[in-house]
Amino acid sequence: MPRQFPRVSISDVDEHVRLLAEKVFAKVLREEDSKDAFSLFTVPEDCPIGQKEAKERELEKEIAEQKSAETVKRKKSFKMIRSQSLSLQIPARDWKIPEVSPISSPVTPVVPDVPILRGPEQAAPMKYDGPEFQRVTISGDYCAGVTVDDYEQAAIGLAKALIIREKYSRLAYHRFPRITAQYLCSLNEEGWKKEDEVYPDFYPPPGDGEDPYDLEKVPANLHYVVKMKGGIPYVYDNKKMMEANEARNLPYPDLETYTLDLSHILALIADGPVKTYCHRRLNFLGSKFNLHEMMNEMAELKELKSIPHRDFYNVRKVDTHIHAAACMNQKHLLRFIKHTFRTEPDRLVAEKNGQKITLKELFESLHMDPYDLTVDSLDVHAGRQTFHRFDKFNAKYNPVGASELRDLYLKTENYIGGEYFARIIKEVAKELEESKYQYTEPRLSIYGRSVEEWDSLAKWFIKHKVHSPNMRWMIQVPRIYDIFKSKKILPDFGKMLENIFLPLFEATINPSDHKELYLFLNYVTGFDSVDDESKHNDHMFTYKSPTPDAWCHEQNPPYSYYLYFMYANIMVLNNLRKERGMSTFLFRPHCGEAGSITHLVSAFITADNISHGLNLKKSPVLQYLYYLAQIPIAMSPLSNNSLFLEYSKNPLREFLHKGLVVSLSTDDPMQFHYTKEALMEEYAIAAQVWKLSTCDLCEIARNSVLQSGLSDKEKRHFLGVNYIKDGPEGNDISRTNVAQIRMAYRYETLCNELSFLADAIRSADISDAKRL
């Protein structure tokens, strides 16, 4: 069956949802300092009167419901559904574990009376065999403190949000957790099929003896035609089909549908009952982990000690968020500058006003002697002066404050063809290969200034042989259209999108005509969207917003606009590449480091995973959704400490305890780190400050491998052959050093939270509850 993009009309959207979404947008645009539409729980409370009044209103509402005969009847219905479903969830096998209350630890990932379908016949409910450990049990009214109406409203809203997320993930070949997908299928009384799962395809590393730069094994050309319309690429079999407007059968996104889906999530994060429910569940998850840790820490440690050979130092770790231009530490850069000046002083390295100049003459024009340089005078390290000053942070990319040195040492396009930059990266790669267990995903920049950027970058990659088995490459697109427009480099935003994505379609359709780019794309695993998120933008993104072709003024498009059009192009490109058996790309933007909470809403719909995610702390609804959807988050506490958030206030430890999928990353070692093993420095500081256990560190490391763009072959080797499966069954402790007790706890807790939503929706007497 062809993959198509499901469309929604504005007439299908509830008026209340639309107004609530606009209210959230309006609050963000005004940047009010007072309490906004998000919640009493989004920021630390400093108004006891407001807290007291809110609690009194909730209490009055709950008392009124308790007196209602209908509410009593519905609560009995909840208990009956819950007891029936949970009693059926316990596998019929002899567990060697203490008896567990099913209320807090459901052991089957689906609602029992809607079994998983694996083809035309119904299969028995999935069985799950967990390790022996002390489980936390909760008995009694499991939704105490939340009224029945609010509980049902929250469950339906959260389920709709997850369905929206799943739709966009599947269309773009992004990842979506299997267990959550199974629950969503059960809500609509549909069968979950394993063959319906989608996964990204990553190019496996070249084998021993294979040439990673072989330009001979290139697929044949197809000679399709690609045309951008409204910022969306359309693929045609030939020019005649293009003239007839008959595009190939690929899923093409619809702006109106996307903005309406965005409105649903925006309305949800401003909905009072949903905020209250999510706040309570998140508090429970944090408290539950504290109890789990108290009762099972020694059992987890005992389990790890029994595993031969494996420990924290020799489990695989991936630096999931790092920029290539700052992948070295400051001492490394200083040594390299001194070495090049000492060995190549007379080399021609630049051209200025038509005159070619040597390296020695370049330094003389800057009135400096490299011999006298120190890490302090190099001045590339961030400090107190960069806190909330992104402009000063960007200036740190210029060694000694000289843009000439940045162009020479940290750019791919310059007079010497980016040779120095390539040599630095290869030195960093060599250190990674010697460490064996550390991998990294550096970002290279594509700006969209011209269509030749891609070919230039691919030729640089192949000419200087930058490939390393310990590196996977990503492309970052800075959100700086306004700068290019002001300099008259670009006529409109649509041209920027064409420069970024049309070369990729050409290399996919006619790889024999673009051999270097085709080869380079095999080693690229994803796209990133980068820039200062704290920049204010007063444009509200809706289906009435100008198309990219019509966005010809100097104002920069808002964050949500960038994300939608990047996602839309990546989605069409991935489907085309999947047809050709080529690798696909993930969308992994910077998100939630600063700025509006709406950034995280856009990423929830469009991104496979995100970097930073600090602002999730401000929205309990989004934080809970990111947990239920198991969206990976690459966090960089040392980077945040210098830019936006003090280390002690970083929510990484809190997110980890609650069960969000977090990994540690370095961001910019040149600016934030001191040692040559920046990633280990990140782990060491986090372990010391937050007193993380070995199991905690290895869980973060495992998350980083899962989140990364490493190929399926590599992940099977690093994590175990069943790494795709949920729970302890998907964990090979001999490779990950993550205790099976920890994996069972995470799995059972997630099942528990999803089952709460399922039970509420199955019992709700609401017309749209049965058909989400």
From TrEMBL:
<dbReference type="GO" id="GO:0005829">
    <property type="term" value="C:cytosol"/>
</dbReference>
<keyword id="KW-0378">Hydrolase</keyword>
<comment type="function">
    <text>AMP deaminase plays a critical role in energy metabolism. Catalyzes the deamination of AMP to IMP and plays an important role in the purine nucleotide cycle.</text>
</comment>
<dbReference type="InterPro" id="IPR006650">
    <property type="entry name" value="A/AMP_deam_AS"/>
</dbReference>
<dbReference type="GO" id="GO:0003876">
    <property type="term" value="F:AMP deaminase activity"/>
</dbReference>
<dbReference type="GO" id="GO:0046872">
    <property type="term" value="F:metal ion binding"/>
</dbReference>
<dbReference type="InterPro" id="IPR032466">
    <property type="entry name" value="Metal_Hydrolase"/>
</dbReference>
<comment type="similarity">
    <text>Belongs to the metallo-dependent hydrolases superfamily. Adenosine and AMP deaminases family.</text>
</comment>
<protein>
    <recommendedName>
        <fullName>AMP deaminase</fullName>
        <ecNumber>3.5.4.6</ecNumber>
    </recommendedName>
</protein>
<dbReference type="GO" id="GO:0046033">
    <property type="term" value="P:AMP metabolic process"/>
</dbReference>
<keyword id="KW-0862">Zinc</keyword>
<keyword id="KW-0479">Metal-binding</keyword>
<dbReference type="InterPro" id="IPR006329">
    <property type="entry name" value="AMPD"/>
</dbReference>
<keyword id="KW-0546">Nucleotide metabolism</keyword>
<comment type="pathway">
    <text>Purine metabolism; IMP biosynthesis via salvage pathway; IMP from AMP: step 1/1.</text>
</comment>
<dbReference type="Pfam" id="PF19326">
    <property type="entry name" value="AMP_deaminase"/>
</dbReference>
<dbReference type="GO" id="GO:0032264">
    <property type="term" value="P:IMP salvage"/>
</dbReference>
<dbReference type="GO" id="GO:0097009">
    <property type="term" value="P:energy homeostasis"/>
</dbReference>
